[in-house]
Specification:
The protein is built from eight helices and twelve strands. The chain is an alpha+beta fold. About 3% of the residues have low confidence. It is globular and about 55 Å long. The strands form three sheets. It has a four-stranded antiparallel β-sheet with strand order 1-8-3-6. Strands 2-7-4-5 form a four-stranded antiparallel β-sheet. Strands 9-10-12-11 form a four-stranded antiparallel β-sheet.
């Protein structure tokens, strides 16, 4: 199993809680592009990511996807539908090979009843997601497409970034510090669905950020050379 994201559901469980969860679950593997959950379906099971990353999204009435979130190792998925018993509010698909613990909805509720502390963890996690959703709604009214793309690149760099050194060896560092390579490969269509803009607007925003020298893009490659500049632009 790869490293869990700090603050994720699985990372915050005690050893005893995790052992009980694993005893009630089975491991499932998914390939890139596989669907874990489909919007509107009944909640049969809950997932906890062990390896790989997924996207949560909803289909737009006019076509295309609205990307809602990207989740990594340790994330809990599908818990809302399991708790309230209503159809799933979003689809979840693998962005890369994924391994997850799968636990039936009824067994998940029994797990929560046996571990009151975990229920509090989930309440806090849901509060964080609601606050994040509120913040993103404010962003749509305050920033243009370039600003929203910069915000999402900052998030990706902070969550999925690793130090980047050119093949020729380290050179002069950017004004914002060392360069960072984003290890998660999102298409321009997916990024457009995340920022609520057209693919053309996202392509134009990326060109603007490249022209400033803040980012570098290539085939399945996205490097941030000046994270501080992106942060300033995203404020």
């Amino acid at each position: 199993m790869t490293a869990l994201e700090p603050g994720s559901f699985l990372a915050d469980l005690t050893a005893a809680e995790r052992a009980d969860l694993e005893a009630r679950s089975r491991v499932r593997d998914f390939e890139r592009g596989d669907t874990l959950f489909s919007e509107g379906e009944q909640p049969g099971w809950v997932a906890v990511l062990l390896r790989g990353r997924v996207k949560a999204f909803s289909y737009r009435e006019q076509g295309g996807e609205a990307l809602l979130a990207v989740r990594g190792p340790g994330a809990l998925l599908g818990e809302v539908a399991a708790i309230d018993g209503l159809p799933r509010s979003a689809s979840v698909a693998a962005l890369e090979p994924v391994q997850a613990l799968a636990i039936g909805a009824d067994e998940f509720m029994a797990f929560l009843q046996a571990h009151g502390r975990v229920s509090i963890l989930i309440m806090r996690m849901l509060c964080q997601r609601w606050r994040d959703a509120d913040r993103k709604r404010v962003e749509f009214g305050m920033f243009d497409a370039t600003g929203r793309v910069a915000q999402r690149l900052v998030e990706l760099a902070e969550r999925f970034g690793v130090p980047y050194v050119p093949r020729g060896g380290p050179g002069e560092p950017a004004a914002g510090g060392e360069s960072v390579r984003i290890t998660l490969n999102l298409s321009q269509e997916e990024l457009a669905g995340w920022v609520g803009a057209s693919r053309e607007a996202v392509s134009k925003a990326l060109r603007t950020l490249r022209r400033h020298g803040w980012i570098e893009t290539g085939r399945r490659r996205l490097i941030v050379h000046d994270l501080q500049a992106l942060r300033r632009h995203a404020r």
